[in-house]
Amino acid sequence: MMDRMRLMFNGVVKSERYSRFTLQPTEDGGRHAEVKLSDDATDDATDMEAGGSPTFRPAPLQRNRWTLFYIALVTVLVFVFGFLIGFASHRPSQVEPVNCGTTTGMTTPTTGMTTPKKETPPPAAPAQKVQLDWNDITQLLTMKLTSQTFEKTLTEFALPSRSAGSKDDMNQADHIFDEFKKLEMEPWNDVHYVKLQTPDSKAPNHVVCGSVEFNTAGYLAYSATGKVQGKLVYGNYGRPEDLEVVKKNIELNSSVLLLRAGKISFAEQVANAAKKGVAAVLIYPDPQDYSYVADTVLYGHVHLGSGDPYTPGFPSFNHTQFPPTQSSGLPKIPAQTITANNAAALLKKIGGPAPDASSGFKGKLDVSYNLGGIEDITVEVNNMLVDREIHNVFGVIKGFIDPDRYVVLGAQRDAWGEGYAKATVGTSILMELARAVHKMIEEDGFRPRRSIVFASWSAGEYGSVGATEWLEAHMSSIDKNVFTYISLDGVVMGRGSFIASASPLLYSLLERTMKEVKNPVNSRVMMYNMTGNDPWETKVMRPMMMDDPAYPFLAFAGIPSVSFHFISSNSESYMYYGTNLDNRDNFSYQTNHRSGEMVAAAAQFAGQMALRLVHDHLLSLDVSSYKRLLTKTVKGVSNQVKQLSQKDVSATWLFSARGSFVRAADSIANAIKNTDLSDDEACRILNSRIMRIEHTLLSPYVSPVKTPFRHLLFGRGPHTLASIAETANVTELHTQLALATWNLQGCANAMVGNIWDLDNQI
Fold first, then answer.
1. Which tens digit of pLDDT belongs to each residue from 614-635?
2. What pLDDT band is residue 40 in, cutting at 50, 70 and 90?
3. Contacts with 515 (C-beta within 8 Å, 6 or more apart), sequence order
C-alpha cells in the first residue's frame, strides 16, 4: 500500500525539471547512466567543458496551483493512513469496568445477583483501568457470599465422621487441595506425625461405685491412664472458688471428684483438681447447662496447652530427632467423661453434707447434690497413644505490593463424629472466601496489597494440634510475615447475639466491621445495632480462653488474633460441641432454620476484616488499644507490691516501662498523621513498627517448652502480669517483676524503630 501511494506521489510531482540518473539500455544489452538536466543544463555543460565539475541540483520550482493541491492532498492521506495503522497496532486491551452500584434488571434466584436486561449496548469507549474503592469491594464480596452460595458448599464438606488422621480426614484434605489448585492458589501440604490418644476397644474405661457399675463410651484425650480408688466428692464446675467451698467441708486429697461440664475447659477442671490432690476426675453434662438426652456422651481433651504434648515447643516432623519429652500441661491423674444418667446414679449414692444454697452447686438432676466424701469409687482409664499422620492444607492469594506479608484465615477440619458446626461450617466458609476473593481479582479488578493465606487444620479437637505444629515449625520467621490470624472455627453457634475474643490491636477493626456488615436477624440495620444501648466492648468482647482456636496464635506466636461467634441469645456456648449431636439438624434448630443466612453473614464478617487488612495502605491495627489494658494491669501489680509492704521491691520501674510503651504508641500515631499514606515505602516502614508490638510482648525469659504461652498479658505462667499481681512470695515477685519490666520496655523499644530514637529511662 505504501509503495502504491509512493508511485502516486511520484506521478504527481514527475517533471523533467529535476536532475536525476536513469539507467538506459545500450545496444549490447548493458546499461549506462544518463544524466537528464534542467533547462539551464547548457550553462552547466559549458562549465564542464571549461574544466569545472558538473552540478546536479534541482532547477527552480515552477509548479502550478493544481500541482500544489495534489501534493498537499497526498501528504494528508499518507499521514491519516499511518495514524490508523499505528492506532490499530498499539491500542490497549480493553478491560470491562466494574459496576458496583444498583443495576436495573432481573434477579438470579440461585445467587441473588442482578442480571441486566438485554439492551443494545452503547458504542464502546476506550477502556479504563479498574479502580475499586472500599464500597466497591464490600459490595462485590457481599454479592458473592449469599445464603444460596452456601447451600451446595455446606453439603460438599459435610461428612458423617472426620476424626483426625482418618481416611475421611485425609480425603477431605485432598479435596481442599484440589479446589485450591483450581483457583490457582499454589496449594501445599504441611505434614506432621503426632501422638493422639484414643480409647482401647479391647479394654474400655470403667467406673464402679458400690452397686453402680458402667463402661464409658466417651473419653478425654491425653488423660493419665491407670486404675485409682477414692472417696466420691461432688465439686460443681471445678473452678478454684468451687473447690474452696468443698474444701471447707470435705477432704479433697486422694478423692475422686465429680464435676459438671461448663464454665471452664476440661483441661482447666482437671488441672485445678490435681492441685488439690485429687486422684481422678469424672465430668458429666448437667441438664441445667445441656438440654439434651441424658445418655449423651462427651468427648474432649485435658492437655493444658496446645499442639502435640509429646513434642512441646518444636514441630512433630517425621525426621525430627529429639529425646522423649512431655508437655508440662499433661495431667498426671486420670480423667473421664460420663453421661448425665451415670452422674445421677452416682449422686444418689454420694451422701455427705449439702452445700450452702447460695453456692450455686445445685443443677437440674433429680438428686440432692450433696458433697459426698463417704462412698468409695474406682475409676479405670485405659486410653492408648497412637501415631497419626496429619495434613494441614494451605492456599495463597498473593498481594500486589507486599506479597511477603499476609493475613491467615484458618478453619479446623476434624471433629468428634459429624462435627457440623465445629468443622463443616468453618471449612465451607474458608473455601467460599477463597473462591470469592479469587473471582474479585480475576473478574472485577481487585488488587490486594498484601497476601491472604487460607489454612485447613487437622487435629484441632486435640488442642489445636495441627495449627500449633505449624506455628512451631515456622516460629523463627512467622512474626515478620503474619500480621493477623482470623479463626473461622465456631463462627456460627446460634442466632440472635454476637461475641468475640481478640487482641486489643483488633478491637477497632472489629467495631468498624460491625458497622459495615448487615445484621443477619434484621437486614435493615448493621451488626453494631445488636449491642443495644450498652458499650459495644462490654456487650461483645470476651477474654480469649486457652481452648479458643485463636489462642495459640496470640499467646504462643505473638500474632494479633481474633475469633468471633454468632450465638443464641442468653448463651455463650454451643452445647452440642464434643458430642455426636453436632449435626445438621441440630445446627439448623440453633439458627432458627436460617443456617444459610447465618453462615453467609459470618463469611461476610470474616471476609471484610481480611480484605480491610490487605487492602488499606496502613494495617488496620490500633496501636493505642493496649494503653488502657496496660495501665489497668500494671496498677494491679502495684497494688500487690504495696500490700506486701516490701522496701526492696517497687513497681516504679514497671510504671516507667509502661510510660515508654505509651510514648512509643503515640510516636507511631504521630508518624501516621505526618506521613503520606500513598507512599508505599513509608507505609511499609510504619507497618513494620506496628507488626512488632504483639510479638515483642512474648517474654524472652521463659522456655517455650516449659511455658509455651509466653505473652506478657494473655499468656499462662509466673511471667505474666496477672500472675505477678497474685504472687505472695517476695523473692519470686522481685524476680518476675524485673523480667516483666524489661519485657515491656523491650516492646516499647521495638515499636520506636530507630535505635537512636529509643527512650531508655530504666
1. 999 999 999 999 999 999 999 9
2. very low
3. 526, 527, 528
Query: Which domains does the chain show, CATH number per domain?
Result: 134-195+386-615 (3.40.630.10), 204-381 (3.50.30.30), 624-751 (1.20.930.40)
**Quick one: pLDDT at residue 82?**
61
Question: Residue 32 is inside which H or E element, if any?
Answer: strand 31-36
Q: What is the dihedral of CA 55, 56, 62, 67, to 10 degrees?
A: -170
Nearest alpha carbon to residue 715 among 562, 556, 485: 556
Q: What is the crossing angle of helices 65-90 and 2-13, to 10°?
A: 170
The per-residue pLDDT for range 502-549, each reduced to its tens digit, is 999 999 999 999 999 999 999 889 999 988 888 999 999 999 999 999
Give the integer Cα–Cα distance in Å for 551 and 749: 25
Q: What is the pTM of this model?
A: 0.83
d(CA 429, CA 448): 20
pLDDT range class, residue 285, cuts 50, 70, 90:
very high
- Three-state SS across 132-154? CCHHHHHHHHHHHCCHHHHHHHH
Residues sharing a CB contact under 8 Å with residue 437, sequence separation 6 or more, in sequence order: 397, 446, 448, 452, 607, 611
Q: Which of 597, 419, 613, 397 is nearest to 502 (CA)?
A: 613
Other C-beta atoms within 10 Å of 78: how many?
Answer: 15
- List all residues 6 or more positions away from 574 whose beta carbon is below 8 Å from its beta carbon: 421, 490, 493, 494, 567, 582, 590
Q: Taking the CA of residue 220 as centre, how many other CA atoms within 13 Å lie in the half-sphere pointing to its CB?
A: 29
Residue 130 has pLDDT above 70, yes or no: no
Distance CA 639, CA 733 (A): 13
Among 130, 59, 56, 148, residue whose Cα is nearest residue 93: 130
Q: Cα 552–554–558 angle (5° rounding)?
A: 110
Q: Is the pLDDT of residue 155 over 60?
A: yes
